[in-house]
Sequence to fold (566 residues):
Amino acid sequence: MRAAFTKLLAGLAVLVLSGAARAETLIASVSSHQIQITSNYTGDQVTVFGLVERDGRTAGRGDPYDIVITVRGPQRMLLVREKERLGPIWINRTQRRFPDSSVFLMVASNRPLNEILSPDSARRDRIGLLHAQRRPDAVPQAYPDMGRFREAMIRLMEDKGLYTEAERGVTFLSPALFSAPIEVPATAPTGTYEVEVVLYAGGALLARQTTNFEVIKTGIEQGLASGAHDQPLLYGLATAALALLFGWLASVIFRRD
Amino acid sequence: MQIYLPIAELPISVLMVLGLSGAVGFISGLFGVGGGFLLTPLLIFLDIPPAVAVATVAAQVAGSSMTGVLTYWRRRALDLKLGGVLVTGGIIGTVLGVLFFNSMRRLGQLELVITLSYVTLFTCIGGLMLYDALRAALRVRAGKPVRLRRRAGTHPWWMGLPLRMRFHRSQLYASVIPIATLAVIIGFIGAVLGVGGGFILVPALIYFFRIPPAVVVGTSLFQILVTMTGATILHAVTNQSVDLILAVLLLLGGVVGAQFGGRAARNLNVDSFRLLLALLILSVGLRFAVELLIPPSDPYSVVLPESAR
Fold:
């Protein structure tokens, strides 16, 4: 972590020296670009570091900087079901599909989002769990109850630890240097995670910067998962053979007669 | 100690899985049933995707019934001919079951199908067995003789259907049609619910065909062994949902537990055996019924269709 931080600072220094034409420049990176799933994997942490670089023209700005970091995980289709009473039993009746939804979402900011920007800007800039999906319009609005299901989906995903909103998840180390920890739970899916850092001051968007990291299976985990998919028959036969072998071994070991 | 399951895609506590499968193995050794009907719901309860739980338990059941089959084979309490008929029907049932399983999964109704099947199957079978066991126990208390074997000359009508065969070791001369039908149904249920079906096959063979209980358990284990081995391979090929690491953990706990269960079974008399098995099956059914009947604390649920990997 410390080495990564030093390396990052060195990188930042180079970027800063190269100079930028815009009033504010945002530079951000993550402590690790790859999370490896091994057999003792129980989740991991990635830290986002960044620097707000300002030139002379911005010296007089009165409002403090605000940072909002959005991490969007791989997209899948999410299915939200609602249980309803049918006679004496409760079963899933209505279901709504949310295609291309991020299975992991994290929104971190240095103070509550409603203090940073207006609800309208939040929708436009795709800030907050409600608006953060990569393609918010991809969800067909054909059903009037879609909003209810979307709220339920966000709440359930928060319960699972896959969606998080960290109101004070971003820490300013100096007026311009910030960092934010991202907890990736063990249940978070494999794939690419997009990290978007947005800089605000006085409710106005000043700069945007994206980076990413990926979660991949390695070693045995990778071997077994790809074996199951690429050679399903062989994998099935091997599993069955192993099961029978276990059964036979047990009968030999515990044999009494 | 946690270990990451590559197919289920979540970490799980090794000790907990070993403990669970050991306990279930004990019960399965005690009653001569596969134990899948207890293990699958437990795994689902631990957040393992239902498809992975069902497919992986199939492998575990195959392994533990292998041990049982070898033991009964040595004791000559296994009717291979009857087993062959059961297996043929079982394979047809398993193929149909896996096809049905996959189509229900596509329709998004798999969870409901599994829950409803558990409720109806277990409450019906458990209730019937309980009734029967209690009636037998009351008869014994009243001093009346217990009729387990049929009287000479009285046959249920289904045994007289065409295609009759003689099964020496089972002391049975009956039509193949009802036996094979039973096997198809059990293979089907097994593949859909990830259970061996022993808890249905054992009482069915005893009550409908009056086969000696000792031979029934060995033969039913043989049928379960073959169908569950087939189900493992079919699930792996069609769903890619068999988790090898989970299977190994379940096997380790299961085979050891089953040995102790088998030993405990020798100290149990027939009546309490039937009563306990009935109560066990009934309670699993009621547990699922409660889930359907009690208003949910949260009506919403979110699922990730598992095919997208």
Observations:
- Chain B touches chain A through 59 residues (CB under 8 Å).
- Chain B has ten helices and five strands.
- The mean pLDDT of chain B is 81.
- The radius of gyration of chain B is 19 Å.
